[in-house]
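Progress against Task 2.4 (sequence-to-structure conversion) is shown through the following example record, which the project officer requested during the mid-term review.
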Amino acid sequence: MEVFLSASIPLPSRDRVYYETVDLLALREALKALAEHVLPVGRITYGGHPAITPLLALFAKQADLDRSKFTLFQSAMFDGKRKEAMPADNVLFADVRIVPAPSENDKENLKAMRVAMLSSQNFDAAVFIGGMDGCLEELELFKELQPGAQILPIATTGAAARSIFENGDYNPSLGRSRTYPTIFRRLLSAT
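Structure tokens generated for the chain above:
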């Protein structure tokens, strides 16, 4: 099972709607349930995020899950020469792929990383947890590059995932259920 994860913890300095609607406990529990469900039988691919990477490393350690089953993509624009640096926890993962930053434009660099990440393999599903505008951009690219794959916006985590759910036609349980292990067992096992 190949799963793409799009997740972030919204910042109050960015679009307030994401920050005001995020449920941090739900986000944490959904990430944990996803890792525990997927890693024993598959792989999770995601773009490194300073708040998500440490959580995934912690969950993998606590549940004694194989961290080599994460593929973490990162743009070279976060090479430490800027205010934003790559998460220190990146070193805990075996498959970290640094995508060259072809321009001085951050938006173009992030798009290059996302295209490389989303075209790196055939995904069975994409899971959206929390997030901000980047999740919406990843959704559009995912639909274009992986047209046959399943999309699971975990709306109860709020933020961009809720927006994706509300603006699409998805399994109704994604909009109300907080039993994340059950959601992933039922919906991802069908992929």
